[in-house]
Design goal:
The protein contains four helices and eight strands; from the N terminus they run E-H-E-E-E-H-E-E-E-H-H-E. The protein is of the alpha+beta class and 166 residues long. The strands form two sheets. Strands 1, 2, 3, 4, 5 and 8 form a six-stranded antiparallel sheet that branches. It has a two-stranded antiparallel sheet with strand order 6-7.
């Protein structure tokens, strides 16, 4: 079984319900085992800042399914929760699920790169990740999640705790 970290984000509709429902759909998938869940944080949008704030969480799952099959399963969840397939990157969305890691593998496909290449610059990923595995190291990176977060100290006002326990 591979340990897999996922990032969840929502900034349209009932953001909290979108995150909770996403987690419930992950639990219902017989090929995915939910191991741990961070608190939920509210964060300012990055890249395209002219949109509503996000709610974000990180979850740890276990699975034996292959990375591209996992991506397809997660896209089904996104679609079910209302995300348009045509929705381009960095736009408002009901739910966004990113695969952050897949075991200790480094994977590069046209449609999927793991570890997620922008994780180290995203406070909305690193802060919730420290809730569940602060000493985890990204494959190919010697820094822990906590130490990567400390490099973003200047952005700490861009994120705040929204809900402690899911």
């Amino acid at each position: 079984m591979k340990h897999i970290f996922l990032s969840l984000g929502s900034n349209l509709g009932s953001r909290l319900n979108n995150i909770i429902e996403c987690i419930n759909l992950i639990k219902k998938n017989s090929e995915l085992i939910l191991i741990d869940t961070s608190s939920i944080y509210e964060s300012k949008p990055m890249y395209n800042t002219n949109q509503p704030n996000f709610l974000n969480a990180v979850v740890l799952i276990e699975s034996n399914i292959k990375p591209l099959q996992l991506l397809n399963e997660l896209k089904k969840i996104e679609s079910y929760l209302g995300r348009s397939i045509k929705n381009s990157h960095n736009k408002p969305r009901e739910i966004d699920i990113d695969i952050l890691t897949y075991g200790n593998e480094i994977i590069s496909f046209d449609e999927l790169r793991i570890p997620h290449p922008r994780s180290p610059e995203r406070i909305f990923v690193l802060k919730p990740w420290t809730d569940i595995r602060p000493n985890y190291k990204l494959p190919g990176n010697e820094k822990t999640i906590s130490s990567l977060l400390s490099l973003l100290e200047g952005k700490k006002n861009d994120i705040k705790l929204y809900k402690k326990n899911i």
